[in-house]
Amino acid sequence: MTTTSARPVWEEKPTFLGQLGKGGSLAVVLLLILIPLYCVIITSFSTQASINEAGGIVIFPAHGLTLQAYSEMLSGGVVTRAMIIALGVTLAGTAVSMVVSVLCAYGLSRQNSLGHRTILLTFIVTMFFGGGLIPTFIVVANLFNGYEQYWALILPSAVSVFNILIIRAFYMSTARDLIDAARIDGAGDWRILWSVVLPTSKAVTAVMTLFYGVGYWNSWFNVMLYMPANESKWPIQYVLYEYVNQGAFMPGAPAAHDVAGHAQPAPLALQMAVVVLTLIPIMIVYPFMQKHFAKGALTGAIKG
Q1: CA 192 to CA 14: how far, in whole Å?
Q2: Are 207 and 214 in contact (CB under 8 A)?
């Protein structure tokens, strides 16, 4: 009984040095990711004494670990409210972006659709040329009265032409036989999109959903533009920006000194705790989307 190797006949057997180099490179990349993440997490659990002894970011907490930063962060209600706002904006924005992108990509993937080439060319032009920040602000804030409105955090960045082109390329690779069979059975475009195209495009849908979701979750610039003064409407990203990058105290939270007879957590530990909190949703969602990346992001782009 003969066995066949999964390796193509023209592909050489990997050498020991080659395998060692690949493994070493992956190990270095993994360490470059995990070591900063480890330091951020450990610092968020560290006491002021450990931070003082380390001179900043803690690697080995000499004076033990504490949950004081997380307790303080969640007890005031500021971070909890900001997290809820961020989740709401992310869910609503992702839903709007995916609906618009899927419909637009499907229309552009039909070669005989009305104005197909003109619309596609217009979309591509917008990838390289834009109106600029000031005209965009005037349109959103003045013309459409979007200042201090949550929709201003969603609609100005609701559509990514790059994502639409990837989805379009994937839809164009959908087997023509399936679409023709559906049309023979009397299905219209809405039915074909819902029952044929979307079920065969779960990979690209999952990947684009993650791209849009991460974009909304990490967005803070629109908050600075359209609602910089109303702290009660800030999502967690802008709270993090104000607290960590600007060196300000958390909005609505007490300063880092004795209050009501108990010591407050170290400012750096509190900053790192907010960073960790913003990472948790992405770390939870990403493993479920990982399996779709190669097929969803690469296959569709290559076939397009």
Answers
A1: 46
A2: no
Q: Model-level pTM?
A: 0.77
Question: Which of the pair, 89 or 14, is modelled with greater confidence?
Answer: 89
C-alpha separations of 36 from 29, 136, 258, 274, 303 in Å: 12, 37, 30, 15, 37
Please answer whether residues 277 and 147 qualify as being in contact, where contact means their C-beta atoms are separated by less than 8 angstroms: no
Per-residue pLDDT tens over the stretch 64-78: 888 888 887 777 677
Report the DSSP beta bridge partners of residue 225. none
Identify any residues that bridge with 65 across adjacent strands, giving them in sequence order.
46
Task: Confirm if 263 and 71 have CB atoms less than 8 A apart.
Answer: no
Residue 249: which of 224, 236, 265, 267 has the closest Cα? 267
Q: Please report, for residues 12, 14, 52, 271, the alpha-carbon distance to residue 57 in angstroms, rounded to integers and kept in the order given.
A: 46, 41, 9, 11
